[in-house]
Design brief:
Elements (H helix, E strand, L loop, with lengths): L19 H20 L3 E3 L10 E5 L7 H14 L3 E5 L7 H9 L2 E3 L2 H9 L3 E3 L5 H4 L15 H9 L2 E8 L1 H4 L2 E6 L8 E5 L10 E4 L15 H26 L5
Parallel strand pairs: 1-9, 2-5, 2-6, 3-4, 3-5
Antiparallel strand pairs: 6-9, 7-8
Length: about 260
């Protein structure tokens, strides 16, 4: 909280002394994230499962089409680990300078194999949604049904020796209602977009759960073994789906 009143022997944090860039990319996002935490009555579990050092791949389910799950997750990681997280996001963010600049300032990185491996080899924490836009933009009628995991995150972990932390985000499915997934492959290969019902987020109750980290017991050369990568990705997806089902059944209606 910004405190404008000076106490004895205490420095004043003057918001007016901050630069425009600091306000836009640091102060306002933090304030917005704190508001969202209260609005969604966010619960966080399993923070102790996040490695405190070394390369780490945070692998969450993706939903809600707005990207709030990515922003809030990044904020929670920084709060609890004091480590900066690099969020791998859709290439549409980087098509123009006007969108690429704020994306970089917010810690977003274009989602591709090379970027992920480079960051992990420098012992960074990387957030990667293995469902991609197909999870984020799926219709709400398929809520909490994980879409097929892409194998890139497995290959990145094998190439860098990163630990994988499967992560469950519960609540984003109800926050934004998506009527349909629209495909625009005619205009741009692989392009899909949502057909949203609401833009203002609904006050669903959120829960983020960090599961136990996974260290893959294979040599880096296995990155070329497509069958192994497919099997490992499927096993992690199945385990996450099972745990999501249990949490959703237990919590019932998502707004209480």
């Amino acid at each position: 909280m910004i405190n404008f009143f000076k106490k004895p022997n205490e420095k004043v944090f003057n918001v007016f002394s901050l630069s425009k860039e600091e306000l836009i990319y640091k102060v306002f996002p933090r304030l917005f994230m704190e508001i969202l935490k209260k609005y969604f009555r966010l619960e966080v579990e399993g923070v102790e499962n996040i490695p405190k050092e070394g390369p780490v791949l945070i692998v969450p389910n993706h939903s809600g089409f707005s990207g709030i799950d990515a922003m809030l997750l990044s904020y929670i990681l920084q709060q609890h680990t004091k480590r900066k997280s690099h969020v791998m996001t859709h290439h549409l963010w980087f098509l123009t300078d006007k969108t690429a600049l704020p994306a970089h300032k917010l810690g977003f990185v274009e989602a591709n194999y090379e970027n992920g491996v480079n960051l992990l080899k420098k012992k960074n924490m990387v957030v990667l949604f293995p469902e991609g836009e197909h999870g984020n933009f799926k219709p709400t009628s398929k809520r909490y049904q994980l879409q097929e995991f892409k194998r890139g995150f497995i290959r990145m972990a094998l190439a860098s020796g990163a630990q994988i932390v499967p992560t469950l985000v519960i609540g984003a499915e109800e926050t934004h209602i998506n009527l349909k997934k629209l495909k625009f492959s005619k205009y741009l290969r692989g392009l899909v977009l949502p057909l949203p019902l609401n833009i203002i987020p609904l006050p669903a109750k959120w829960k983020i759960v960090f599961l136990e980290p996974i260290s893959l017991p294979f040599e880096s050369k296995k990155v070329k073994d497509s069958e192994l990568c497919r099997e490992l990705a499927s096993e992690i997806q199945e385990d996450m789906q099972s745990k999501i089902n249990k949490i959703v059944r237990k919590r019932g209606f998502g707004f209480f």
